[in-house]
Specification:
This protein has 362 residues and is of the alpha+beta class. The chain has helices at 15-28, 53-60, 110-117, 127-134, 136-145, 164-174, 201-208, 253-258, 273-289, 325-332, 337-356, and strands at 2-9, 34-41, 47-49, 71-76, 80-85, 88-92, 96-100, 154-157, 179-183, 193-195, 214-219, 223-232, 237-238, 242-246, 263-266, 294-303, 309-315. The protein has a 7-stranded mixed sheet. Strands 12, 13, 14, 15, 16 and 17 form a 6-stranded antiparallel sheet that branches. Helix 1 crosses helix 2 (53-60). The relative contact order is 0.14. Bound molecules: adenosine-5'-diphosphate and magnesium ion. Residues 299, 313 line the site of magnesium ion (MG).
């Protein structure tokens, strides 16, 4: 029996999504193999141990997890997790952590670094891969270097706004109009917009730069949005792709989280077998180029006119609700949700064993 800490909530715009993802994981985890320990991370970023009854409650109810702010949990350097007691702190024995934290301070390498320092195995990508998954510019630079097909991009920082006229000319000559502007490191489509012409560029960039120091300008791709689930460590496998068909102008925040009819999800995607094979092989190559492990959902565009497959971005802690694409694509490929959690935990433990064989000191 392995004790697995499910860490959820977090200091991110995707806090609420995490409460739903984590509830699904608790409902689906194989209790003959795992003893789940629930740790809720508040919006302020503090970690709290949840009562053991929260597990049975979550398995009975079809509701998002909540966070009871009573007993604080800390990651202790070299010592795993500890929990507050009336007398001080005591060890909180646990074999591995499943960070179900989407977005900032969870999916971006920061929590992964904390868990490394605490010497705890954890599900998903390591520090570097998590950080790359968050930084769309850096991930695309690596993918370009690996010869993978990415949407062309121009990275823009605040200082470029001083000469918006020449920036507008540059965008026009590189991509033409309309273009698309988004923060390099963000998620949930926040700060992202379609820009019809040079007059709209500055306000779109200002909106994107509220979320990150870097914004990306790209050609607006009229595309079908295709997603691919990848599972594994050194020999990752990609499942048959699925499609997200937003009913909005693009897959914006409202289409993702507010409008219940914001998108139609299809698993598997109705694309040609050649396109599906291309998506799968590029997904595996993209996973390897960013040195990911465990899992990732690699997102693509298929250009509506030319049928070309283009890499868009990678998510290292994808949504895990029962309707989320990642678990659904795995399920369609024969890996049930409970089996998926078991596989991810085993991959995390394997990775930790391998890394602990390395020398860290002479
Ligand atoms: N170059 C582009 N052309 C057209 N639409 C885009 C482009 N880049 C992003 N989008 C749209 O914006 C959405 C969010 O962008 P994405 O790069 O996936 O960032 P996020 O991390 O916020 O999901 C995409 O799902 C897509 O609908
Ligand atoms: Mg996306």
């Amino acid at each position: 029996m392995k004790r697995i800490a499910i860490l959820y909530g977090g200091r991110s715009g995707e806090h609420e999504v995490s409460l739903v993802s984590a509830a699904s994981i608790v409902r689906n985890i194989d209790l003959s193999r795992f003893e789940p320990i629930l740790i809720g991370a508040s919006k302020e970023g503090e970690w709290y141990l949840q009562d053991t009854k929260a597990v049975s409650r979550a398995r009975e109810l079809d509701a998002p997890l909540s966070i009871e702010k009573a007993r604080r949990v800390f990651a202790a350097p070299g010592r795993g997790l500890v929990v507050e007691t009336p007398k001080g702190v005591e060890a909180l024995p646990c074999d591995l952590v499943f960070p179900v934290l989407h977005g900032t301070f969870g999916e971006d390498g920061t929590v992964q670094g904390l868990l490394e320092v605490a010497d705890l195995p954890y599900v998903g990508a390591p520090v570097l891969g998590s950080a790359l998954g968050m930084d769309k510019e850096k991930a695309k630079e690596l993918w370009l270097r690996a010869g993978l097909p990415v949407v062309p991009f121009l990275a823009v920082r605040q200082d470029a706004l001083r000469d918006i006229v020449s920036l507008g000319r540059k965008v026009a000559s590189l991509f033409g109009w309309p273009c698309f502007v988004k923060p390099s490191c963000a998620g949930s489509s926040v700060g992202a917009s379609k820009v019809a012409g040079s007059e709209g560029l500055e306000s779109a960039l200002r909106a994107a730069l509220e979320w990150d120091e870097k914004a990306l300008v790209e050609p607006f791709v009229e595309a079908r949005e295709i997603e691919c689930a990848v599972l594994g460590n050194d020999a990752p496998v990609a499942f048959a792709p699925g499609e997200v068909a937003p009913t909005h102008e693009f897959y914006d925040y409202d289409a993702k989280y507010v409008d219940p009819n914001g998108a139609r999800l299809e698993v598997p995607a109705n694309i040609t077998s050649a396109q599906a094979e291309r998506v799968r092989s590029v997904a595996v190559a993209a996973f390897k180029a960013c040195e990911l492990s465990g899992m990732a959902r690699v997102d693509f565009f298929i250009d509506k006119r030319r049928g070309e497959v283009l890499l868009n971005e990678v998510n290292t802690i994808p949504g895990f609700t029962h309707i989320s694409m990642y678990p659904r694509m795995c399920e369609a490929g024969g890996v049930s949700y409970p089996e998926l959690i078991t596989r991810l935990a085993d991959l995390a433990l394997e990775k930790h064993v391998m890394r602990s064989k390395l020398n860290f000191m002479k």
